[in-house]
Amino acid sequence: MECDGCPECVLSLAVNETFDLEKAVCSYGFFMMPPNLWLSSSSTLRRPLRLSDATTRMVYISQQKSPSSSLQIRVMDTSNLTTQDQQYLLDQVVRMLRLSEMQESEVRGFHALHPEAKAKGFGRIFRSPTLFEDMVKSMLLCNCGWARTLTMNRLLCDLQSELKEQPLGGSTIQEISSNSNGTCVNSDDSSPKTPNKKDGKRKRCSKKPSNNAVSSVPARFSEQGLPFTDVKKTIVSEASSITLIDIEKSAMNLDIGLCQEGENNHPLKISTVNLSEIISSPESLTEEYCIPSALSTGDFPTPKELASFDEAFLAKRCCLGYRAKRILHLATDICNGTIDLNSLESSDGSPLLKFSELEEFFLKLKGFGPFTSSNVLMCMGYFEIVPADSETVRHLKKVHSRFQCTIGTVAKEVEEVYARYSPFQFLAYWCEMWDCYEEKFGKLSQMPPSHYHLITGSNMRKEVSKYFINQMPPSDYHLITGSNMRKEVSKYFINQMPPSDYHLITGNNIRKNVSKYFM
User: Fold this and answer.
1) Whole-Å CA distances, 358 to 213, 334, 381
2) Tell me: the pLDDT tens digits for 341-398?
3) What b-and-e string marks burial along 282-306, b requiring 16 or more CB atoms within 10 Å of the CB?
4) Domains and CATH numbers, the chain
5) 395, 390, 356: which is closest to 373 by C-alpha?
6) Can you list the positions of beta strands (E) in 26-89?
7) Are residues 215 and 251 in contact, defined by beta-carbon separation less than 8 angstroms?
């Protein structure tokens, strides 16, 4: 591999002919969580990964199928990689995509029991490059909605981006805490100092919406979540009308509030794309510039990075609430050696202990109940137990007619339904769940990240269709309301009625069950 003098290094990792990167990545909700970013236009996974010295590099992973199947791993901003760094990066990729010999054998074993899954190419569950990231993300799945989970992950990565490429010392932590809460956390003092609380009265932003063409372009894309091809066409068509004076006048920033109900939150400032470069060469615009989550390049924080913060600051800054205490406790125990994650699994992500031993270990950790522990065990490769929640209850009722299933009986019901797939019960269950999600929301690998928060049990019950989310023209966006959902507004109602019948669209006629024929 020739790296010297190049802006990037390229690693290659051989995979078998049946491996499909898109299906391996877009197979579990973790792929939607920052810092992961799936670029559907190029079938590429982008995320930061760590080198052996704990510094981060942005990495792009794509698949090359000719002349032989392999993964191309582009490591940015480096002209040289040591042998140690190369292996360190490859181990993380192998873990994320479950490419070890043991895991390949498990995929074949599952496909022997589940031919339908084999035909679909389903058999791998995407996970994080490190066990610690899987553990924290599993904690963030509990007792909150999916949109909240995505927000907490994003804020943790944005916090890490403020530490990136800077030494973990007093100045960095002080600066971040001071900028966010008005009080510094002195890292030289071992006792944590909770930042002072701000005045309880919230000040409304006095800024008026800008009419500037530069600032309005990314704002509209952020709100609408348009497909990349549509965004690019719009920017290319509008680029000629944007002048350098517009750019100079623009603040080039969007302040996006991500406050959750009942939680205080730090405003997230996202830098927008450098539009001066786009104007000079609009065709060079890439998909990343049109995805809000792509504008942050922070990695998921390490135990050392998280342990540097004060609990109250972390709870407020990353919208974690009570979870901040549990996450900090885990990070601190790892840093001081109380917990040794290297004793739990090998470098390629294969577990080193038996299921029963790991289950007992996780259940003893603070913040790890049955669901969180089961989810981490699944991430480690133990698929005989299903992390069950209210979504599992809904699924069993709808797909398996287990109408009497409750959260109290779901474990027993799951065991009965999926016992024939042992020891891969979770894989069989998740193959069904993923099919149900895609039946309702369309192919999830093609869904824009701005729509990820819509994948909820509530929207599943509302019968939100693929069309409703992905194909509706912007002129009809205002029709997506709870009221219209209850009125069973159909595709025909929205798109096929002749203008001469528009007067029939009334609440009275809806109540009368006006049919397509009537229209």
Assistant:
1) 56, 16, 11
2) 999 999 999 999 999 999 999 999 999 999 999 999 999 999 999 999 999 999 999 9
3) beebebbbbbbbbbbbbbbbbbebb
4) 8-127 (3.30.310.20), 385-421+424-471 (no CATH), 472-519 (no CATH)
5) 356
6) 37-39, 44-50, 56-64, 70-76
7) yes
